[in-house]
Input
Amino acid sequence: MTQASVPQSQRFPSYSRGIWAHVPDELWNDAQWQLRHGIRTMKELGEYLELTDSERAGIQFATHSRLALLITPYFFTLIDKDDSECPIRKQVIPRVDEAFQDPQEMEDPCGEDKDMVVPGLVHRYPDRALMLVTNRCASYCRHCTRSRGVSGIGPKRLTLDLPAALDYLRRTPQIRDVLLSGGDPLLLSDQKLNSILTELRKIPHIEILRIGSRVPIFLPQRITPNLCCMLRTHAPLLISIHTNHPRELTQESRLALARLADAGIPLGNQSVLLKGINDSLSIQRELVHKLLMCRVKPYYLYQCDLIKGSSHFRTSIQTGLDIIAGLRGFTSGYAVPQYVLDGPGGGGKIPLNPPYIVEQTAQQTTLTNYQGKQFIYPEPRERSIQERNALMSSLQEATSTHP
Ligand SMILES: *Cc1c(COP(=O)(O)O)cnc(C)c1O
Output
């Protein structure tokens, strides 16, 4: 059966709760219960599935010095326990490869620390700022670009000086867009998040607010009607979620995303291109189609940053270009994310596009379409004043002789 012929309900499955089958619905659907029962140790994880030697070594290394282990019971149920190559498993269970140190890899691959204007506030682009409001997430992605400070295990402390950040934003009128990230801002209580958003909304030059969150994927139970009600009072507020594989879009996540969309919140998705997880056209196509069905616009597809211990996740740039070339023109334009690379060491996001421009001269541009057919677009011709005047008088002459 092709994907398109599968009924919608089956495309967004609800996975079996396995060892949590006895847990009553009201607990399972409670975000606090999910967080309290998060899987944090090798011992716990080993009771729930058979760990490989590589995973044991990876957990040992990572949880002592790199990035904590944490998986919500809900997200754990998405793992195919019989498949050591499961794309869900590889995103949240460390492998020995995390201990490899490539000389080009960096603690701070996007150079955020040097654009930090006060602790927790990154001001890199002219009109927008990034505020790191917490260092906690509902589960930890092994490809985390801020593993240096997220979870509290790595070498750096990521803390926010909120009064200083607000003060900086108040006296920097060119900032019209503030992004809350972390860690995951949706792990803050409704009250705490509301107070930060309220303070930001009092600043007249801030036009839009954004939240980056993987909570709708790791902990969809957190997206309650109360939270959505609070968020909608801060409109225009946009949310970027982080999904990498179509299997992550379950019935539960779809409900969480529907609640956010129904609250009038524009939704985008940021994916990371990950080797052996989502580095194929068919997986990306299925992912972007499912995202649109959840009213989420695929926003960015990131080339994996040069994070310490990420060599097993990184693909070639050509892999990403081929995926974009396979989507553009072949499916809805809305489904095609912008592929970007965050400049190693700093510099910000750089768009990566397949070469649709074949040749550019002063006279014309030669282009290729999605099917590889070539087209020529001539440059507009500059007309001289004499040429325009001559045309005008000849037209006037023509109208005066034929009234
Ligand atoms: C990604 C990013 C932004 C937002 O970039 P957009 O392209 O507007 O989504 C802002 N500040 C920093 C430091 C970023 O890394």
About this structure: Residues 385-401 form the longest helix (17 residues). The pocket of pyridoxal-5'-phosphate is lined by residues 122, 124-125, 128, 130, 179, 349 (CB under 6 Å).
